[in-house]
């Protein structure tokens, strides 16, 4: 990675060495907030942000994301987690703590159209995407130059339906080598096999170039044009084994009119795809997304 | 109709007594604009607005909407139309002239939810919808008071699938009695029979409470909620005999999030439905919409 | 008030008899959330919604809005408040508890243009504005019919700069008579005197027909037109004694272009004004707004 | 320039060798459209797009932009222009013909923040900005690498108020050397001298980081934060000698809330600045903008 970005990352880590996020998902019941906030207070933690949501006030699930600052977190962290077990048990919590200083390793998969990748790289360079973009994997050579110019390794792995198994073997080796936490499909036009998807459950983010559930599958702009819609959209979602049916993270749209042919729609759409995907990636990196069933809660 | 609205309509008619709109749809070829504008100039007409669109620069259809002002139009109109026939023949034009002073007679069909009707009535009162809302027909009594308070006749015709034929007979009598030019389905939850639709081709405007083609058919908000979308929308379209498949006139959307249950989505959606339907009705009344195949050109 | 609305209000009160909102503003320090949530838990209260904000993580102010459900709140309320004093004292809290069943009494002031009032009345009728619109006061007769048709008292008090003192005396008598909690200036084109404003600090909501701070003062649409802007907006804010300088609650905009003259801008603007004002009023009624200095925190 | 972009430009020129745009601004009078379209028809030209606008139907100015395709335009062009003089004289037209194959030479001025430049370069690479970005001039070295990597000359000219005269001399030499048609100030934080501005009247496009006329001048995000606005914006305009008062081309906004500090506003704002400036540049390159007084007509 180039020196300039490396420096930004180090500054970020230093500034956030005492910062963590606690995510909880559990059956709703009185006393959870009291118990958790009391526990954190006991460690001298100051709650910086807290968002909560009760799925249905009477009897549903309860979700909370707490971001806190705690002196000496590096040293206290593991003990804090251990002691939290009793709280977790009492309230039957599904929980995790994410340390902000441990930035995530990201792999980007891309095919021929580089606009989404470019936006990610640009936000990465600007310090707005705080991850380690460890590797870019593509079934085309198009993006090699722009990726390598930032000091990021680029792997060209040609791909098609017939050799998927072998391709995914190579990809998995790279994902392991670079200890990847999250995979971003930045207009990667290949379908992943079920086992691949399961290995990275809720950790593969895809951008689909339509306002889902309209125009699931191939050629959404062509079909939007044929239907004569007045708006086109893009949708980011976690990948599941039902094509374009995974939990939606974010959507956005823009206006088109009768003057826009398919090419014009694609150009407009690229701009939406770029921003929708980038927002989703940022939320994922900030641990703002909780998946519940086939939906997301975005705090 | 009450006196205040009647007065607005008379003022509008007087101010527009020399104003007309010429709509043309024809195979593209050089010389059309020259011939048409030369023709209008010959009558002393001044072109106020002109919008054109060529479907595909090489070999497609050509569409133009010209709004013009012409002294003594009331007297010259029929002669102008007669003489235009030779131009129309030469270029094989599909055309019509609409006189702005001849405001359209509108019928509104509504079921239980009155929000779209209310918006139309409010825009009507404000002079923003320049039509004669001649009659409101409903299969519920809910809206009677608000309609009659404006001096508009209200007819309650209970309806269901089994008695559709008889209901439509009654409706058609009313449409004839009030010489209706355009029907607005302002959340009218009954399906119209094929012959009814054909009698008013491209003159029945419906509002569907989803971002079509997502959630065609019943209970779109419920299905949007189940899918976990991050935006909900509404779509206005001309009614055809394929449910929710008619030419789209306008669409709009608004954001929702995980906190919004079905009821909250409905409330947000009502606001979108109101504005999308109202915009469409205004465009129709201004003769801004040309239907071509299953699409609209909105000038 | 008419029976239909009265019924909606009664249902709302019954459904929310155990619901309250606790609003806190205090210097940031560890332990607040723990103490407050522990306190509520002690009363068997279940936290339904909680939003918090720390102005500056290191040393700024802390704000929280907690909505909770508590069995027997009607009986427990005063004791709960009394016992909360010790928590409040310990953390130096500026706080209040609002009981959802105690819906607010609202007065609407309006001049000649009724669009904002109409939107409020429509949302009121629909049960989306849960307040008691107790009185409408106007310096024009325009709105009398629509107001009285809902059973709401309407007072016509002609007004101008020279008789402001006397006019405000009459207005204040009405405000006292109807025990008004919040005043909405729904395009009321008169300036209120400083003492009037002070008596209702952070309880008078105004809609200004521009995107503040652009076009402060009179004739904003005319000035927007002269400047050739490509978007117009509206701003709602709490009234202070600096004209159009009070804490902004909400803003929105819409596109205009060179074809829009001042009248067209006004029509577009009315639609923005309606929705911006209505959103603000709902947030105020839901106790979602905390004023801090000259800014609002909207939870 | 790199080979890939060069190729795109050549393809574009070849495809548009017979395409031109006629822009007219004149006093309104009947017969203009007829005369102009008749004239073009006489040359066998086919009108592809035509947009017109009459400033005030009774007695104002008339504006039209006609895009046409004409076989052998390269050869016929000068004769066509010569013969058009008689039409122009008859109707007192202010007019110009722009040949689409003659793509414009663009200079970009930038200071420290590269986001707007980057967006322009990215759209340039993608073939969405059809100009020859001939030179980038900056008073910082920040952008050198990204510019030179595309084969575009980059000049570092340190600048401040005291040496403005000398700096502008150097800049002007470069503008002449590269035969610049249009200058884009992509967050160039220096004020240009009056003579410089006059030399490039309506050919210098600036992006201002606020929703003008709010926050004219320095530090708009800081002032937006202090005022507590709920939306921030950006404005592109042609540069005149009144700071931030030139004819507005485009504006856009995005939402912020109490959680956004100045830095967060800047990041949100950068995204708006990028898209607003890029849209404006595209419209300028497509000859869609006519300046009239201190306003723009954007066709």
Q: Which architecture of the largest domain in chain A would the CATH scheme give at its second level?
A: 3-Layer(aba) Sandwich
CATH superfamily of the largest domain in chain A, by name, is Formyl transferase, N-terminal domain
From the N-terminal CA to the C-terminal CA of chain A, the straight-line distance is 31 Å
- Total number of helices of chain A: 9
Please give the order of strands in the largest beta sheet of chain A. Answer: 7-6-5-8-9-10-11
Overall structural class of chain A, as computed from helix and strand content, comes to alpha/beta
The strand count of chain A comes to: 13
* Form type of chain A: globular
Mean pLDDT of chain A: 94
What's the oligomerization state?
Answer: homotetramer
Give the amount of beta strand of chain A, in percent.
25-35%
Tally of individual domains of chain A: 2
In helices, the fraction of residues of chain A equals 25-40%
Largest interface between protein chains, with number of residues from each side: A-B, 29 and 29 residues
Describe the largest sheet of chain A. 7 strands, mixed
- Uncertain regions spanning at least 5 consecutive residues of chain A: none
* CATH topology value of the largest domain in chain A: Rossmann fold
Radius of gyration computed on alpha carbons of chain A: 21 Å
Highest-level CATH class of the largest domain in chain A = Alpha Beta
| N-to-C order of helices and strands of chain A | HEHEEHEEHEHEHEHEHEEHEE
GO molecular function (chains A, B, C, D): formyltetrahydrofolate deformylase activity
Family (chains A, B, C, D): Belongs to the PurU family.
Protein name (chains A, B, C, D): Formyltetrahydrofolate deformylase
Function (chains A, B, C, D): Catalyzes the hydrolysis of 10-formyltetrahydrofolate (formyl-FH4) to formate and tetrahydrofolate (FH4).
């Amino acid at each position: 990675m180039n020196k300039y970005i490396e420096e930004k990352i180090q500054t970020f880590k230093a500034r956030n060495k005492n910062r963590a996020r606690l995510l909880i998902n559990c059956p709703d019941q009185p006393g959870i907030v009291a118990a958790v906030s009391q526990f954190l207070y006991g460690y001298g933690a100051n709650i910086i942000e807290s968002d909560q949501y009760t799925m249905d006030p009477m009897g549903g699930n309860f979700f909370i994301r707490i971001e806190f600052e705690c002196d000496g977190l590096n040293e206290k962290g593991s003990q804090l987690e251990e002691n939290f077990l009793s709280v977790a048990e009492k309230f039957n919590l599904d929980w995790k703590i994410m340390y902000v200083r441990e930035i995530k390793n990201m792999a980007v998969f891309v095919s021929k159209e580089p606009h989404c990748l470019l936006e990610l790289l640009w936000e990465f360079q600007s310090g707005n995407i705080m991850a380690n973009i460890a590797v870019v994997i593509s079934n085309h050579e198009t993006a090699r130059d722009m990726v390598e110019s930032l000091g990021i390794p680029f792997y060209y792995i040609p791909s098609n339906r017939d050799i998927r198994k072998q391709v995914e073997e190579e990809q998995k080796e790279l994902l392991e080598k670079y200890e990847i936490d999250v995979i971003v499909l930045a207009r990667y036009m290949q379908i992943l096999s079920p086992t691949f998807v399961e290995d990275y459950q809720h950790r593969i983010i895809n951008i689909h170039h339509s306002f889902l559930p309209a125009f699931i599958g191939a050629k959404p702009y062509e079909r939007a044009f044929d239907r004569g819609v007045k708006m086109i959209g893009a949708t980011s979602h976690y990948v599941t084994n039902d094509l374009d049916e995974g939990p939606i993270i974010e959507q956005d749209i823009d206006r088109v009119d009768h003057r826009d042919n398919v090419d014009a729609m694609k150009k407009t759409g690229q701009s939406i795809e770029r921003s929708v995907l980038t927002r989703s990636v940022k939320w994922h990196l900030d641990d703002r997304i909780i998946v519940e069933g086939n939906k997301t809660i975005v705090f």
